[in-house]
């Protein structure tokens, strides 16, 4: 067997952030924070914004349910933000079409709750009416941030005008995958449908509605998992909607040319978002168990009940039959300083990053197998020479190396021992890097000698 040739990790050309810490725990123990998560539809979800920042910024655990990695989803249109960059506000700026789509979503929710069309129309008209802008213009007053007056807004301050160069005002198109991503995130982020129905009447009276304005229903005291939820989720979200008004640019012209001289006047109108969607952090089962078992900085709830380490080991093994194998490999590589991520994209179990995905490309694609002392056992994915060669070539084309991680358990280890995470103390690990032998390269190297 040839010796492995180790290649240094490839650093990314552009790095837009600084490295904070390998784990979301303080070495001195002064600023220790116990994060909270919940199991929803066999997924581990973190909802508290402060916990999300803690877990992702320190160790790059999880991914945003609406983002590729870091949870940075925003409904604000980047092109509109650049277009209205002179406006001093941090509210999202969206197109009228995008806003109307959310109105239709809110209407569908109310229809499912059995409300008649007349009541739905009145509710939505009252909820989506123009609001006062939460920033001042030209009077030297300080910006008030995300807050927006709940009382009667001043209609004169409800719009910010801007003239367009022509009738074809520039309006950005919505992202091609925005709708599918947002709709896919409704179930894990919205909670129970019954809670939405119980609060439908509150919106008709002008109060927050769980699904229509994005607020969370106030939990009972025993639901300790969500005591740390940010108060921002209990308030409606205000957005600036770019709308158009028609006006005559040349009033002195005769009426025969009046229609030709009409130009569209673009304005930003402050309104409540009728269908707010929150982005949460989704942890893989291996990441969640590592935070609970190895670091002790996460508490996972199922409903109102916090789950113990042994219970999580049992539940995760039922949800994912090969969880024990993949977690042992995850725990091993995390302990060596790597940042493992799901390797499904390349047909493997794990991808290994140095420091984290923002800084380096993945160095290895890992396949984990649990075997006995004689390297025998029921393999999770038996590989033929053809499939192994194809997998290795796929990995090599992505500038990575294929690694087989064998988790060796003693022959005398019983199933009862495997029922708790303490079994990992007797597990040995052997790494095997797979490389493709190229005959022409071998001949050229021999000719040099």
From TrEMBL:
<keyword id="KW-0819">tRNA processing</keyword>
<dbReference type="Pfam" id="PF02778">
    <property type="entry name" value="tRNA_int_endo_N"/>
</dbReference>
<feature type="region of interest" description="Disordered">
    <location>
        <begin position="129"/>
        <end position="203"/>
    </location>
</feature>
<dbReference type="InterPro" id="IPR006677">
    <property type="entry name" value="tRNA_intron_Endonuc_cat-like"/>
</dbReference>
<comment type="similarity">
    <text>Belongs to the tRNA-intron endonuclease family.</text>
</comment>
<feature type="domain" description="tRNA intron endonuclease catalytic">
    <location>
        <begin position="323"/>
        <end position="410"/>
    </location>
</feature>
<feature type="domain" description="tRNA intron endonuclease N-terminal">
    <location>
        <begin position="276"/>
        <end position="313"/>
    </location>
</feature>
<dbReference type="InterPro" id="IPR011856">
    <property type="entry name" value="tRNA_endonuc-like_dom_sf"/>
</dbReference>
<dbReference type="GO" id="GO:0006397">
    <property type="term" value="P:mRNA processing"/>
</dbReference>
<feature type="active site">
    <location>
        <position position="353"/>
    </location>
</feature>
<dbReference type="Pfam" id="PF01974">
    <property type="entry name" value="tRNA_int_endo"/>
</dbReference>
<feature type="compositionally biased region" description="Basic and acidic residues">
    <location>
        <begin position="193"/>
        <end position="203"/>
    </location>
</feature>
<protein>
    <recommendedName>
        <fullName>tRNA-splicing endonuclease subunit Sen2</fullName>
        <ecNumber>4.6.1.16</ecNumber>
    </recommendedName>
</protein>
<dbReference type="InterPro" id="IPR016589">
    <property type="entry name" value="tRNA_splic_SEN2"/>
</dbReference>
<feature type="active site">
    <location>
        <position position="361"/>
    </location>
</feature>
<dbReference type="InterPro" id="IPR036167">
    <property type="entry name" value="tRNA_intron_Endo_cat-like_sf"/>
</dbReference>
<dbReference type="GO" id="GO:0000379">
    <property type="term" value="P:tRNA-type intron splice site recognition and cleavage"/>
</dbReference>
<keyword id="KW-0456">Lyase</keyword>
<dbReference type="GO" id="GO:0000213">
    <property type="term" value="F:tRNA-intron lyase activity"/>
</dbReference>
<dbReference type="GO" id="GO:0000214">
    <property type="term" value="C:tRNA-intron endonuclease complex"/>
</dbReference>
<dbReference type="InterPro" id="IPR006676">
    <property type="entry name" value="tRNA_splic"/>
</dbReference>
<dbReference type="InterPro" id="IPR006678">
    <property type="entry name" value="tRNA_intron_Endonuc_N"/>
</dbReference>
<feature type="active site">
    <location>
        <position position="400"/>
    </location>
</feature>
<dbReference type="GO" id="GO:0003676">
    <property type="term" value="F:nucleic acid binding"/>
</dbReference>
<dbReference type="GO" id="GO:0005737">
    <property type="term" value="C:cytoplasm"/>
</dbReference>
<keyword id="KW-0539">Nucleus</keyword>
<keyword id="KW-0507">mRNA processing</keyword>
<comment type="function">
    <text>Constitutes one of the two catalytic subunit of the tRNA-splicing endonuclease complex, a complex responsible for identification and cleavage of the splice sites in pre-tRNA. It cleaves pre-tRNA at the 5'- and 3'-splice sites to release the intron. The products are an intron and two tRNA half-molecules bearing 2',3'-cyclic phosphate and 5'-OH termini. There are no conserved sequences at the splice sites, but the intron is invariably located at the same site in the gene, placing the splice sites an invariant distance from the constant structural features of the tRNA body.</text>
</comment>
